[in-house]
Amino acid sequence: MSVKIRRLAIQFFIKQIATHPFSPLIHTNDESNLQLVEKDAESLRVTFHSLNCIPDHVITLPVLPHSNPNLCEIFLKDFRFLSKEIPVSIIATSFTECIQSFFPNHFIIATDGSKSHCYTSIAGLSNIQQLSYRIHPLNSVFTAEVLAICQALDELAVPEKDILILSDSYSALSSLKNITFHSPKVIQRLASKIHVKKSMNQNISLLWVPGHSGIFWNEKADSLAKQVTDSTSFLEWIASEAIISNLKKNSQSK
């Protein structure tokens, strides 16, 4: 089997892992059962070993995927502080006025993702607590930004209030706003988490904030994400898209 064909086979199997539990190759009754010939199985083992991860770490579709673009309110350009015409010097003040006027009773959470030559990381904070994690270095900034929101919903949200999440990732929020069944698996995961909150009568709103514009919440989340060290806890999730991209990159360099 040629190197290219083997790579394509591995990419195919990784896509099947990521679409679990909907892949007919994996789903057998209530069990995960991916049966491969020995050569393919060995290639897959070598691939995951080289990445220092296992198939269970791959971000998969949620059991109940959601592709409803109206799942929650997502604000990308609705407020004065988001106008391109507003001077940077007054963005922070205008942001504060926006929160006081439109979200006075929301519980605020800020999130951020970061990628450097040392670490890929996520962070989040509320006025009660904060979180930060290292994640697999192959993950993109986009995946990091979305994972940060997912983790914040798990760890930082409070049950008795509606939630306002602040993120400086326009691409992440735009992707969620325009979600389809073909959206990245991590976006599908985020949509599922929001749906669960909504089913418990808790509304989630997401607000884009421009980065490095003096907004305290964003500056703090950015700082937390960049302050991770080797001792920071590690989240093992990895996007299938990152694995496939890495396989293609390595094949082109040979």
TrEMBL record:
Q: Which reaction does it catalyse?
A: Endonucleolytic cleavage to 5'-phosphomonoester
PROSITE patterns, per this entry? RNASE_H_1 (PS50879)
State one molecular function term (GO): RNA-DNA hybrid ribonuclease activity
> Do you know which Gene3D superfamilies this protein is assigned to?
Ribonuclease H-like superfamily/Ribonuclease H
* Record key words, sorted: Endonuclease, Hydrolase, Metal-binding, Nuclease
Q: What is its EC number?
A: 3.1.26.4
Q: Does the keyword Isomerase apply?
A: no
Boundaries of each RNase H type-1 domain copy?
103-230
Q: Does the keyword ATP-binding apply?
A: no
- State the InterPro entries in the record: RNase_H, RNaseH-like_sf, RNaseH_domain, RNaseH_sf
The biological processes this protein is annotated with in GO are: DNA replication, removal of RNA primer
Q: Which family does it belong to?
A: Belongs to the RNase H family.
PANTHER family referenced in this protein's UniProt entry, alphabetically? RIBONUCLEASE H1
Record's protein name: ribonuclease H
**Origin species:** Araneus ventricosus (Orbweaver spider)
